[in-house]
């Protein structure tokens, strides 16, 4: 099961609809938690049906503020229990649990004065509905002081988040952590005015964690909101490091022979067996390093917009990753392999959807899609 939680900051915008649709298509979540939709119930339900979510609970916005939704596909069985403008509670029937567990989708109150009573109410729900418990969404509070940056005084921030922290302590909840960044919200200002915080997260009790020990939460790029979407994967598979395989294509590059000769002669040992193993290891490492340098392997497992930087990566790569959110916000379409983008029918300029190239003659078959013009296998 995959669950996508997003603070949308309004779905009346065409750009927000487009980006959210791309997110759903890319990650194919079975469940959606959408807050601050700011559209009517009829419009929201219509969008959900188009996206493939026939089942939903929706709390409409008051005037133009709010709008909170939990939607799920036909492959998932959810049973709504309670809902209001800040929380939707559902029972989830999913293996390996023989009994349903409680999902609490949260859109935390923005007013500090409302938070103590709200989190006490959330704590009481867990007492009324026994069993494994998962909380996910925009909690509008932080668990640690280190999860905020540039947000006024530390004391006021602690006071605003204390009700959530007390509830987590009283119930004994576990933070599922996050992959891909430290903050899930930014005020999109620069310099000293920049403020960041980790407001979006997933919490669970010990019983739920034992059911799904491989569950992970991943931070996705913020392309249409000041919040980063988060995706919870209950059955994550940790990708193991691929084993070394000598590539036949390397032999077509004469430089590979020099790499092998230099690495092989760089290690010596009086023990013949140890010398053989040592030379093999040196050659393997040298070939892998040469392959990364010549051909690049930063994007082996996805696109640039899904990539991240590690502490050991180069300064250049870290700089590229640092601006990927800006790249995605300015993108009209994500081309990918080109099989879904028609040169003549799809818009090329974001703010002018009717601006499209006009062919001077009939393009004919094999000249309509971007993929038709990609030469595979070339350098």
Number of helices: 9
Q: Supply the CATH architecture of the largest domain.
A: 4-Layer Sandwich
Rg estimate, integer Å? 25 Å
CATH class of the largest domain: Alpha Beta
CATH superfamily of the largest domain: Endonuclease/exonuclease/phosphatase
How many β strands by DSSP? Answer: 15
**Structural class computed from helices and strand pairing:** alpha+beta
Main sheet overview: 6 strands, mixed
Helicity level: 25-40%
Total domain count: 2
Portion of residues in beta strands equals 15-25%
Stretches where pLDDT falls below 50 for ≥5 residues?
Answer: none
Estimate the mean pLDDT confidence. Answer: 85
What is the strand arrangement across the widest sheet? Answer: 3-4-2-1-15-14
Secondary-structure element series: EHEHEEEEEHEEHEEEEHEEHHHH
Shape: globular
Protein name: Endonuclease/exonuclease/phosphatase
InterPro entries: Endo/exonu/phosph_ase_sf (IPR036691), Endo/exonuclease/phosphatase (IPR005135)
Keywords: Endonuclease, Exonuclease, Hydrolase, Nuclease
Domain Endonuclease/exonuclease/phosphatase: 6-227
Question: Could you list some keywords that capture this structure?
Answer:
6-stranded mixed sheet, 379 residues, Deoxyribonuclease I, Chain A, single chain
Account of the 3D structure:
GO terms for molecular function: endonuclease activity; exonuclease activity. It comes from Trema orientale. Keywords: Endonuclease, Exonuclease, Hydrolase, Nuclease. The protein is of the alpha+beta class and 379 residues long. The chain folds into two domains: 232 residues, Endonuclease/exonuclease/phosphatase (Deoxyribonuclease I, Chain A, 4-Layer Sandwich); 49 residues, no CATH class. It is built from nine helices and 15 strands. The chain has a six-stranded mixed β-sheet with strand order 3-4-2-1-15-14, with helices on one face. Strands 5-6-7-8-13-10 form a six-stranded mixed β-sheet. The protein has a three-stranded antiparallel β-sheet with strand order 9-12-11, with no helix packed on it. Strand 7, helix 3 and strand 8 form a beta-alpha-beta unit. Helix 3 packs parallel to helix 4 and helix 6 packs antiparallel against helix 7. The radius of gyration is 25 Å and the shape is globular. The relative contact order is 0.08. The mean pLDDT is 85.
């Amino acid at each position: 099961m995959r669950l996508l939680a997003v603070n949308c900051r309004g779905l009346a915008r065409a750009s927000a609809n487009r980006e959210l649709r791309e997110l759903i298509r890319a990650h194919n979540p079975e469940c959606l938690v959408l807050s601050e939709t700011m559209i009517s119930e009829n419009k929201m339900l219509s969008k959900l049906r188009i996206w493939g979510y026939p089942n939903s609970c929706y709390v409409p916005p008051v005037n133009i503020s709010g709008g909170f939704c939990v939607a799920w596909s036909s492959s998932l069985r959810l049973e709504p229990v309670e809902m209001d403008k800040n929380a939707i509670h559902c029972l989830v029937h999913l293996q390996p649990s023989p009994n349903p567990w409680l999902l609490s989708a949260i859109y935390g109150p923005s007013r500090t004065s409302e938070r103590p009573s709200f989190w006490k109410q959330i704590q009481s729900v867990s007492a009324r509905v026994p069993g494994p418990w998962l909380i996910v969404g925009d909690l509008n509070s932080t668990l640690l002081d280190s999860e905020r940056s540039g947000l006024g005084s530390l004391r006021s921030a602690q006071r605003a988040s204390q009700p959530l922290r007390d509830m987590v302590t009283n119930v004994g909840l576990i933070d599922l952590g996050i992959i891909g960044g430290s903050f899930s919200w930014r005020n999109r200002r620069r310099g000293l005015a920049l403020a960041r915080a980790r407001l979006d997260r997933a919490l669970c009790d010990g019983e739920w964690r034992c059911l799904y020990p491989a569950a992970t939460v991943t931070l996705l790029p913020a392309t249409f909101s000041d919040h980063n979407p988060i995706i919870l994967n209950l059955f994550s598979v940790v990708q193991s490091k691929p084993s070394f395989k000598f590539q036949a294509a390397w032999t077509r590059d004469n430089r590979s022979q020099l790499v092998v000769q230099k690495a092989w002669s760089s290690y010596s040992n009086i023990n013949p067996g140890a010398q053989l193993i040592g030379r093999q290891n040196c050659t393997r490492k040298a070939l892998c390093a040469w392959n990364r340098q010549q051909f690049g392997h930063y994007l082996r497992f996805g696109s640039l917009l899904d990539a991240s930087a590690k502490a050991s990566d180069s300064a250049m790569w870290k700089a590229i990753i640092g601006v990927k959110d800006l790249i995605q916000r300015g993108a009209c379409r994500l081309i990918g392999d080109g099989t879904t983008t028609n040169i003549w029918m799809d818009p090329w300029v974001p703010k002018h959807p009717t601006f499209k190239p006009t062919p001077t003659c009939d393009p004919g078959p094999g000249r309509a899609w971007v993929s038709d013009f990609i030469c595979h296998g070339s350098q």
